[in-house]
Design brief:
The chain has 124 residues and is mostly beta strands. It is elongated and about 45 Å long. Helix content is 13%, strand content 33%.
Length: 124
Amino acid sequence: MTSTASDDPDAPKTPTTKRATKSATTGGSADDTAGGSGRVTAAQAMRGAAVQLAELLGNNPDSVSALRPTQDGWTADVEVAELIRVPDTMTVMATYRVTLDARGQLLGYERVRRYARGQLDRER
């Protein structure tokens, strides 16, 4: 019988790498896509948009207020508190439009709106 590194207690320990079971950006497994097409589901796209934008901005998003499929992936509107104020209704919020590819990876973002948390949209 031959000895392997795992059988020999005196063998030097080398780190082993394990394949990740969850995608860092979408919260699902790498193969957990809509119908195996390589496209993430709407829920995965929402989580991915929020997580990736938070990494770039350094602020945790409050919510994803819109999500639209596109030919090449997804577009999401993410609400972020930019300046915390007292009272809370005066906190400065921003809406960021996030573009994701079909696999849920962030391609770009832009701030499209700033407003006070207590502000209501006006009728157009």
